[in-house]
């Protein structure tokens, strides 16, 4: 379910977008403890968790004019999870680089694939929470490659019903991704490719 900004959040984000340090401090003070705990839960390393939190808030400030945030808490939580994921991806690549004869460009190519896997898992998590019909139509279409008529026959609904549910599923996914900031964290092309 997509959450919407409160009037106060809208005001704070407008101030932040215009470079207001007090608005930034207000967001930081409200969320830092929860986000630090989240980073620690993923890393079990206090120093690393603090570094990740610093990185998330630094990016929030640096990109304040570019982000389209529709729910502050969800956006920041997703940013922390992605920062943790990114840290471990870089560590894995660094370790593999030290112990192998692969060239650097192999790892650069691998980054895109890791992003695709992460985003695919994120999408799967949202799909699991969709209403049954909506979820089944999306899975039949995207995972099994069935056409609308085949899905309609399998589910006992009209082709228009299939198309309506598929449209709804994609809308839910895009709204959630926009809410969680994934249209900024990932290239829009990658998102569209995974939903196509």
UniProtKB/TrEMBL annotation:
Lineage in the entry?
Bacteria, Pseudomonadati, Bacteroidota, Sphingobacteriia, Sphingobacteriales
Q: Name one Pfam family in it.
A: Sigma70_r2
According to the entry, every stretch annotated as the RNA polymerase sigma factor 70 region 4 type domain falls at 122-171
Q: What is this protein called?
A: Sigma-70 family RNA polymerase sigma factor
One Gene Ontology term of the biological-process aspect is: DNA-templated transcription initiation
Q: What's one GO MF term for it? A: DNA binding
- Describe the family membership recorded for this protein in Swiss-Prot or TrEMBL: Belongs to the sigma-70 factor family. ECF subfamily.
Which InterPro entries does the record associate with it? RNA_pol_sigma-70-like (IPR039425), RNA_pol_sigma-70_dom (IPR014284), RNA_pol_sigma70_r2 (IPR007627), RNA_pol_sigma70_r4_t2 (IPR013249), RNA_pol_sigma_r2 (IPR013325), RNA_pol_sigma_r3/r4-like (IPR013324), WH-like_DNA-bd_sf (IPR036388)
Q: Which keywords does UniProt give here?
A: Sigma factor, Transcription, Transcription regulation
Keyword Transcription assigned to the entry: answer is yes
Show where the RNA polymerase sigma-70 region domain sits.
28-92
